[in-house]
Inverse folding.
């Protein structure tokens, strides 16, 4: 394969730039030409394509966001949009494509592979960690660390005022950001879409912790359940402790990627290009049991994300 394309799609995630760098540099290593497609599938449909050089990706390994920019593209769901995307690839002689994005972006990649025969490799780039086939997605670790930084600060003020903090984190339908940031911040309670919550139990847990000498409580709620504001309003009618909501919001999508995300980016990007160089397409890359893996894209997108109940129980046992 002599010429490959690269795009980032869907919500951005810290580490996407490091992955772009890894793809471009690995491609050049193998003697390929690498074309950057701006604004995800929208840019592919509208022919926003530029060649990338060794130095196009200098000084971006540490940057959040995505140099190629990104978009959520509804047109890619239509046959017309898909045909235009394929036309752009043909026009530039692009023989293989690397797509960095989440679940929705992989569905676009699957269509290009399956229906139009474009060898495509998916790199999981989303803060949500909602893809079953990989233990971690790119950006998740940095996003959780950003949440931890904010929750640490909330703990300071909540303890001073003996309050209950309800902190809303992202994750779409997945509770992983809430689960990991809850455990790692020492939150007493997490509320996730995967497990129905019981307000009486939550109130008892708060009361028990106060009876045991605790001066504040942190409840991390995943956005897929309800907003922090709504949850705090409901909780306040069951308790005399003062409750305050905080929504972390898009702050958790930005920032310099953590060591873990930079390492994943380097390995995912390199693996994606190695596959294309071997003439292999229609795969996604990921990490499982600390090993970089690749898997059939159709199989990967059909897997249903499971929740780690053991980690949830761990939180219940150690945070009180
Ligand atoms: O998929 C990443 C994500 O940040 C989700 O956690 C969140 O639900 C969504 O994107 C927000 O999307 P937008 O930036 O388009 O509001």
């Amino acid at each position: 394969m002599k010429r490959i394309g690269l795009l980032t799609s869907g919500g951005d995630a810290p580490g996407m730039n490091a992955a772009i760098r890894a793809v471009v540099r690995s491609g050049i290593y193998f003697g390929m030409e690498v074309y950057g497609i701006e604004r995800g599938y929208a840019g592919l449909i509208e022919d926003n394509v530029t060649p990338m050089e060794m130095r196009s990706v200098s000084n971006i390994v540490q940057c959040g966001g995505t140099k190629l920019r990104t978009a959520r593209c509804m047109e890619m769901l239509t046959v017309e949009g898909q045909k235009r995307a394929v036309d752009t690839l043909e026009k530039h002689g692009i023989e293989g494509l690397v797509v960095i994005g989440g679940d929705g972006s992989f569905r676009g990649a699957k269509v290009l592979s399956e229906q139009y025969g474009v060898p495509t490799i998916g790199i999981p780039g989303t803060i949500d960690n909602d893809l079953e086939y990989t233990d971690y997605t790119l950006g998740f670790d940095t996003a959780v660390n950003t949440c931890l930084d904010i929750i640490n600060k909330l703990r300071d003020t909540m303890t001073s005022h003996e309050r209950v903090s309800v902190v809303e984190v992202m994750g779409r339908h997945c509770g992983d950001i809430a689960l990991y940031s809850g455990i790692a911040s020492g939150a007493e309670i997490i509320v996730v879409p995967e497990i129905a919550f019981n307000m009486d139990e939550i109130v008892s847990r708060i009361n028990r912790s106060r009876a045991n000498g605790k001066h504040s409580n942190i409840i991390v709620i995943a956005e897929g359940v309800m907003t922090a504001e709504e949850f705090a309003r409901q909780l306040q009618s069951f308790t005399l402790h003062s409750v305050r909501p905080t929504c972390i919001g898009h702050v958790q999508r930005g920032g310099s990627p953590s060591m873990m995300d930079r390492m994943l980016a380097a390995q995912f990007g390199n693996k994606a290009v190695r596959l294309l160089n071997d003439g292999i397409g229609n795969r996604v890359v990921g990490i499982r049991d600390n090993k970089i893996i690749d898997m059939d894209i159709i199989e990967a997108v059909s897997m249903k994300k499971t929740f780690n109940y053991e980690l949830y129980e761990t939180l219940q046992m150690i945070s009180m």
Q: What stands out?
A: Residues 11, 102, 126-128, 170-172, 223, 253 surround 6-O-phosphono-beta-D-fructofuranose (CB under 6 Å). The mean pLDDT is 98. The CA atoms of residues 164 and 255 lie 27 Å apart.
